Every structure is written in structure tokens, then in C-alpha cells.
Amino acid sequence: VRKRYGPTPRRFQNQNRLRKARREFMHGGSLTQAALRAGFFDQSHFIRYFKRFQGMTPGQYLRAQERF
């Protein structure tokens, strides 16, 4: 069903919020501020969704990006 219709509206919204937060903290913003500005309730909520979609925590993601 997902192949035909794409992500659910909630999943689509969360993916966009994660994208926005990721851009912000990749450009030097704090994780907390990035999460709040992207519309997450708090940092733990953001980390939970980030890990679900990226397969790693934001800190692990940052360290992996620094290696390249």
C-alpha cells in the first residue's frame, strides 16, 4: 500500500521535521534548539524519531559525518 500512496501524512510530516532539524544542527545549531525549531516537543522526542528514521542517534550521525 505504501508503494502506491507513499508515506502517511504523519510520517511525511515527521520526515520533514527531521530534515529541518538535521540541517540546523549540521550547521552548528544545538540539538535542543534544532529539535524545538523543527517542531518536536523536546529533545528526547526528537532523538527517538531520529533514531527510528536514520538508524542512529543524532550524536552518532554527527560523528559519522565528521569522518568524511
List keywords for this structure.
globular; 68 residues; mainly alpha; single chain
- The percentage helix is over 70%
Mean pLDDT: 88
Q: How many helical elements?
A: 5
Query: What ranges have pLDDT less than 50 throughout 5 or more consecutive residues?
Result: none
Strand content: under 5%
Write down the secondary-structure element order.
Answer: HHHHH
- Shape from CA axes? globular
Structural class: mainly alpha
User: Based on DSSP secondary structure assignment, what is the total number of beta strands?
Assistant: 0
What is the distance, rounded to the nearest whole angstrom, between the alpha carbons of the first and last residues? 37 Å
- What is the chains' assembly state? single chain
Largest sheet: none
Radius of gyration: 13 Å
Structure description:
- By secondary structure, this protein is an all-alpha fold.
- It has five helices and no strands.
- The chain has helices spanning 2-5, 9-26, 31-38, 43-54, 58-66.
- The N and C termini lie far apart (37 Å).
Task: Offer a concise description of the structure.
The protein is mainly α.
Question: Helix and strand layout, with pairings?
Answer:
Elements: H1 2-5, H2 9-26, H3 31-38, H4 43-54, H5 58-66
